[in-house]
Structure to design on (315 residues):
């Protein structure tokens, strides 16, 4: 079973001004002369963690991580202005150009898989390979499954009820738009209460086996504020994508070597997301991570992701 590579520290980090308002945090780890690989975090709004560096052999990879607009160590924190999918794709390309990288491997999980796919479909010539985990196709059906009383709420009704209890009494439409309006309203205490409840609901659903330490690490006030508000911001705007855009544009990336790893029992992003993507990318490799949910840290999923990054070194 593949385990994380040892903990490492960046050999370089900086803030990159991508427009007059936003500065995004970028770091580089591993071998400065290694094969470049970009890690794209989830959420939107989650930011990167130190473990995200550890899916890659630091002796062979030049590992690039960044915090997307308004989250993690990027500035201004929590900012939703000019924060949409096309801007994030542009930011990724600015990072590549700033680092003088001609082509790179791209690794993304959950929302990171969404952004990786849109980036690759926009800049296919910049991408050597894709390693994708926990696919989120950003369709209405995918958003509703988790956040508008869909299937996930039937599997975890107790968790869902705890989320609902954070909403104001009498709230009859506990969907994404309601939560977004509350989290962007003038009542900051209520906004934080809903953001915390949203984040705890989602993160509790991420692992097949309950993992309170995992929940606690991802739902502190600062993390919950950006995770919940950014996710709701993107979801009320259909992730700033056309209907079924990702699947419709798969012909643009059909020749990019792609490995898809998806937890068989993923409740946040059901397995059919990965299955449908694989049907549109018949040259891709689809790996069902058995006994796994949505999280990248679950043993089987971690094993398959590390194996995939080792495989991509041979391209």
């Amino acid at each position: 079973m593949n385990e994380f590579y040892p903990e490492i520290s960046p050999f370089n980090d900086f803030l990159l001004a991508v427009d007059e308002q936003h500065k995004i945090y970028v770091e580089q780890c591993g071998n400065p002369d290694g094969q470049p690989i970009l890690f794209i975090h989830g959420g939107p709004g989650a930011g990167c963690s130190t473990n995200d560096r550890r899916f890659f052999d630091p002796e062979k990879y030049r590992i690039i991580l960044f915090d997307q607009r308004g989250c993690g160590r990027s500035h201004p924190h929590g900012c939703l202005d000019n924060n949409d999918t096309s801007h994030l794709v542009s930011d990724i390309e600015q990072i590549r150009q700033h680092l003088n990288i001609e082509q790179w491997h791209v690794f993304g999980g959950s929302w990171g898989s969404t952004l990786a796919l849109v980036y690759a479909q926009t800049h296919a010539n910049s991408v050597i390979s894709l390693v994708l985990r926990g696919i989120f196709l950003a369709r209405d059906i995918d958003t509703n499954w988790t956040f508008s009383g869909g299937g996930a709420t039937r599997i975890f009704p107790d968790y869902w009820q705890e989320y609902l209890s954070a909403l104001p009494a009498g709230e009859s439409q506990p969907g994404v738009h309601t939560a977004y309006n509350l989290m962007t309203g003038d009542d900051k205490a209520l906004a934080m209460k809903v953001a915390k409840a949203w984040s705890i609901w989602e993160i509790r659903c991420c692992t097949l086996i309950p993992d309170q330490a995992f929940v606690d690490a991802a739902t502190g006030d600062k993390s919950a504020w950006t995770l919940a508000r950014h996710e709701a911001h993107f979801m009320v705007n259909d992730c700033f994508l056309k209907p079924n855009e990702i699947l419709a544009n798969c012909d643009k990336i059909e020749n990019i070597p792609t490995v898809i790893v998806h937890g068989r029992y993923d409740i946040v992003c059901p397995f059919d997301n990965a299955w449908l993507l694989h049907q549109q990318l018949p040259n891709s490799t689809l790996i069902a991570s058995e006994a796994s949910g949505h999280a990248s840290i679950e043993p089987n999923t971690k094993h398959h992701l590390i194996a995939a990054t080792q495989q991509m070194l041979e391209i």
Remarks:
- DSSP finds twelve helices and eight strands in the chain.
